[in-house]
Amino acid sequence: MSDWKVSLYRPEIGAAEREAVADVLRSGWLSTGPVTQDFEARYAAALGVDDAVAVANGTAALHLAVLALGLGPGDEVVLPSLNFVSAAAMVALSGATPVFAEVSGAHDLSLDPADVAARITSRTRAVVAMHYGGYAADLAALSELARAHGLVLIEDAAHAPATTTAQGVLGTVGDIGCYSFFATKNLAVGEGGMVVARDPDIRARIRRLRSHALTVSAQDRHRGGPSTYDVDTLGLNYRPTEIACALGRVQLDALAAKGKRRQEAVRQYRERLADLPGITLPFADRPVEESAHHLFPVVLPEGLDRDVVQDRLKAAGIQSGVHYPPTHLFTAYRERYGLGPGSLPVTENVTGRQLSLPLYAGIGDRDVRLVVEAVRAAWQPAP
């Protein structure tokens, strides 16, 4: 359907974004250059860190983190199965083994620190904490686990750009923070991402690895620096474009205002859906100010068929989504690591009942009302 009354997500691209792109086209410099450097500086300032490295996308951010840490065969990384597949894929492609851990439950879709602790072995090198929907994982507990076992804590902050919580700015509390600026994200440039790292040596390694590990950048050569270069390790082309970073600067400037609009929609959803029989609203006890609100997830009660609910919403013109199918049950992971149903009972139970409702910066009161009315009408047993 292309004529949804309320779509799951709707990008906001205006005159400022169009003019920013036009400026780049007029400049004649299309790949990583001065606009990228300025976006990196502005994003780092928004996080309160020294520096940030812009990359081609969020998956590249995760891959560069894995590469910079030197993870490989024999190493294990503990991470949630309830996440987009990219995090596990980047671990697996390095030769390391993704070890999937449970989420806390329907009320909290973040990694369960107690289950993480139970899965740590002598081969564990890192833990990936995913800030689901823009809500903070339990960074205090996970940081303590990482310190106690000498592990690296990677924050998958794809859903949480420049998000301040009581635990700190998400992505900056652990050792490495990875962000996504995909087309559906709160800060959307089409394809883009960012990496921050506490250790300046790790950060420098990530910056070099994103551009073939060249010892002299193209921009330095253009400015009259050395015309040749060396390559002393294996790198990749994970550079962003100037166009993406120009969009990123505009989106970053508007992020706080758009975040407030998301907060208001979440307040309304919480107030108007809380009385539905058997519904769970994950993170409902969290202050709305302490989340990026990338998603608005609900968990259906046992016995209410998600497919039926989604079909009823679709008939009413309301788009919904599922975030996410559990990674450990995908064919590649079942076959490669011997996983299957029953491996993560809490995660499997929750993911079978999870549903995402429309949420985006431009969602209006009328849109929320239409969604709520459709959900309440759909909240009936199948005939």
Automatic annotation (TrEMBL):
The cross-references to InterPro entries, in alphabetical order and at most eight, read: DegT/StrS_aminotransferase (IPR000653), PyrdxlP-dep_Trfase (IPR015424), PyrdxlP-dep_Trfase_major (IPR015421), PyrdxlP-dep_Trfase_small (IPR015422)
- Family per UniProt? Belongs to the DegT/DnrJ/EryC1 family. L-glutamine:2-deoxy-scyllo-inosose/scyllo-inosose aminotransferase subfamily.
Q: What are this entry's molecular-function GO terms? A: pyridoxal phosphate binding; transaminase activity
CDD domains assigned to the protein according to its UniProt record, in alphabetical order: AHBA_syn
* Active-site residues, record numbering mapped to chain: K185
Please name the SUPFAM superfamilies in this protein's record: PLP-dependent transferases
> Which cofactors, if any, are listed as required?
pyridoxal 5'-phosphate
Species of provenance: Streptomyces netropsis (Streptoverticillium netropsis)
Q: What is this protein called?
A: Bacillosamine/legionaminic acid biosynthesis aminotransferase
Highest taxon above the source species: Bacteria
Q: Gene3D superfamilies under this entry?
A: Aspartate Aminotransferase, domain 1 (3.90.1150.10), Type I PLP-dependent aspartate aminotransferase-like (Major domain) (3.40.640.10)
Q: Which UniProt keywords apply?
A: Aminotransferase, Pyridoxal phosphate, Transferase
Q: Alphabetically, which GO biological process terms does the record hold?
A: polysaccharide biosynthetic process
N6-(pyridoxal phosphate)lysine: modified positions: K185
